[in-house]
Specification:
51% helix; globular
Length: 239
């Protein structure tokens, strides 16, 4: 068994830096719930990341565009200066991110049982490497087991992101599980690549009925630890 993890909103709470930046800068100017704003920003993030990959948006403009569009949808027009202030505050808060306790327990269990693990994440190299450093992921992952779309050129939901890991690490699809929080980019793409999937749906998002379900959907941090720990124990017993 091989376990591959997403980073953003899977290993840590991605909304926390967003929430803190919002509360400091714009909470008094808008009534919309911060959770709704965060979810909208995630949708724009995926869209803008794809446009950046195509060369349609300069890397230095992606974050400001994402924030401007998010707040614009909520009825608040932000200036370029305000977008930069949000980004500055957001980046500052990202330096303080910590792993979900359940994920730290899972990674420790994988390490103890010698379960092969890796990271597969979308994003630019600089931003994702900063998160990797803040989360101290080198405790569990060798650099050769960290795959960032901005470095590999393969961005989920492109199944080549999974094929690239298979070729580099020798992971067989039928023996590999991907754990992520985003249905379309993480779960649907993993299934298309022939991998097993665990949808860590702690945001309680809905899946379109026409789309195939994840192999496993888990909606709480407590449940995901127990499920993955049981997987690890079963794999260890088989070996």
């Amino acid at each position: 068994m091989n376990l591959v993890f997403d980073i953003d909103d899977t290993l840590y709470d991605l909304m926390e830096p967003f929430r803190l930046a919002h509360e400091k800068l714009f909470a008094g100017r808008i009534s919309q719930d911060v959770t709704e704003l965060f979810q909208k920003s995630r949708q724009y993030s995926d869209m803008i990341l794809a446009q950046e990959k195509q060369g349609l948006i300069a890397p230095e403009d992606t974050f400001s565009m994402r924030i401007r569009l998010t707040y614009q949808d909520a009825g608040l027009s932000l200036s370029s200066k305000e977008c930069r202030l949000f980004e500055k505050e957001y980046r500052l808060r990202q330096r303080e991110i910590t792993l979900f306790p359940c994920m730290e327990q899972i990674l420790n269990a994988c390490q103890k049982a010698r379960i092969p693990t890796a990271i597969l994440t979308n994003g630019n190299s600089r931003g994702q490497r900063q998160k990797i450093s803040a989360l101290k992921l080198a405790r569990w992952f060798e650099n050769t087991h960290i795959f960032i779309s901005g470095e590999t050129g393969y961005q989920k939901p492109d199944i080549m992101a999974f094929r690239h890991i298979e070729s580099k690490l020798g992971f067989a699809p039928e023996d590999s599980w991907y754990i992520g929080d985003t249905y379309e980019a993480d779960i649907l793409s993993a299934g298309s690549a022939g991998w097993h999937s665990v949808w860590f749906n702690h945001r309680q998002r809905a899946r379109r009925a026409a789309l195939p379900p994840a192999d496993i959907e888990i909606r709480s941090k407590e449940a995901i630890f127990h499920f993955v720990n049981e997987m690890i124990q079963n794999a260890t017993e088989r070996n």
